């Protein structure tokens, strides 16, 4: 325990010695400060005394509590913590493992009475310290903003700390693996970003293909329903149009199903970075205290792969229901398996190598 | 270039059980070709300063790293501090300062020493107390709360020494401890090593500076191409080269030519300065001052003028050069490990 504490204290000293750590922390507080400056009233959104009229966001449609939670999840977590802060964290921590295995540094630690496995995994955990501290500060500041401005003291906000830290751990496991393999901070950073981009692309592709597949199913069901319920058998033009659309829709189904099968298959073996962050949506925005952000609009133009005959809101609910049909354990479990394998390989390389 | 070296001496058979390091048959091959260590046997007595010598790539650092679990041996029998190689209990009682160490530069000297203590499982109060004491002892008392980024190389070396001693080690392993240290600092470190030894600790010193080794080490080992070619006290290792030299006026006596153990060097080939004119140096191999008295008496009885008479032995440098030279070809073994 003494050694673990010493390594963590050392990691904190290392972080606090880096300007980028304090810069990221300052930006976090700035982002929360901007949230605090935003407000919602009967006509729209206010910012430092100015009011911007909005038909979507006003106290008539959204409660202040919901408004701030939306800001926290959609801007704070999805964009700031999930993208920008993560980039800063990777830049800051990509050198942890290469520095650990650098000649002259590794000698000092391996000569101590600590097993290599424990040393490596403890060092890996210190890499998560940056993300954990950033999210904790951000969540705490947001907790007070939502409490003071939104009138709700939402402890569930702190779920962001383990979720975002876990999300970061998925990326950092790859960073650690590349770091121990190449011993290069630059290679760790670049290849991790590349892997993240690939995973993100596959996730998005699967999401798009899945939307197309669901749209196809809903469209076919809707047409079949219209055909069954039509009261005007003499309207042959409509009947022909419906039959033609149904045939076309059913003909496309195998393509959607096959594409989804492959994308989903690949996605299953990869870490669920996007899905992990979306867990916060489930816990914060789907609770009894507020409606889901995607249910705000029932009308409006369809998305690229949306069904023509189904309302947008209905389609979005179906897509979301499908996304959420994957249990939390599927999202976390498959990601953990990936992380475990990557980290296991990195540990084996670290343990077996001569320095 | 010469081929593999042969062992010159191995005088470590009568060391008894009081050994801090007792390693036998240490083998290490990097990849499939580079044989860094080929059956090395090393025995270091408790309470002595032991010098590990060898040319670059001879396997010194590999041997030290095997003891410190930084490199995994192919085979390594024996014990370090009476425990198996890599035993955590033994590691907790060893202080180690690697060559080209890299302490985090954002830490202060005190933090470096305290971190080292924590990693060696020294409790908080003890390591804080020892950190201050040791930093004072290595002359870094005034700098202990400044970051390493403001230190010179020699100052970092001193802090490294303090870090190696924070766990009150029984065995201190130092790899080039005076690297980057000025002459005054070297003297201080040498005194520190002697102080450490006087406290009953064992010191394994890996250094290229032969004079440094000669000044402080009671025993040495020489590694060449992954093999131990010499091990023992400097006296033991140089005893075979011990000789008595007498410079006499005139040519060499005829009776000297009859003895196989006497070499006669004419004045033209003599290296000693200050001897001029017609004279000759007589070199009596393996002879000490006591044994030389009868020869001196005989020379005087023959009315020969003795200009100089002294016991001569190899320096550590001579010994080292002899160890790294192939006796059959007279060529220096090629640097690096055997392949």
Beta strand % of chain B: 25-35%
Number of strands of chain B: 14
- Helix fraction of chain A? over 70%
What is the typical, i.e. mean, pLDDT of chain A? 86
Low-confidence stretches of chain B: 9-16, 268-275
Which CATH class of the domain at 19-93 and 169-238 in chain B?
Alpha Beta
Could you say which overall geometry of chain A the principal axes of the C-alpha atoms support?
Answer: flat
**What is the helix/strand order of chain B?**
EEEHEEHEHHHEHEHEEHEHEEHEH
Q: What's the total number of strands of chain A?
A: 3
What is the helix/strand order of chain A? HHEEEHHHHHHHHHH
Structural class by sheet pairing and helices of chain B:
alpha/beta
What count of domains describes the coordinates of chain A?
Answer: 1
Annotation field: number of helices of chain A: 12
Return residue spans of chain A where pLDDT drops below 50 for at least 5 consecutive residues. Answer: 288-297
Assembly state (oligomeric): heterodimer
Instruction: Kindly provide the radius of gyration of chain A, computed on alpha-carbon positions and rounded to a whole number of angstroms.
Output: 25 Å
The CATH architecture category of the domain at 19-93 and 169-238 in chain B equals 3-Layer(aba) Sandwich
Which pair of chains forms the biggest interface, and how many residues does each contribute? A-B, 27 and 32 residues
Strand order, sheet with most strands of chain A: 1-2-3
Largest sheet data of chain A:
3 strands, antiparallel
The side-by-side strand order for the widest beta sheet of chain B comes to 6-7-8-3-9-10
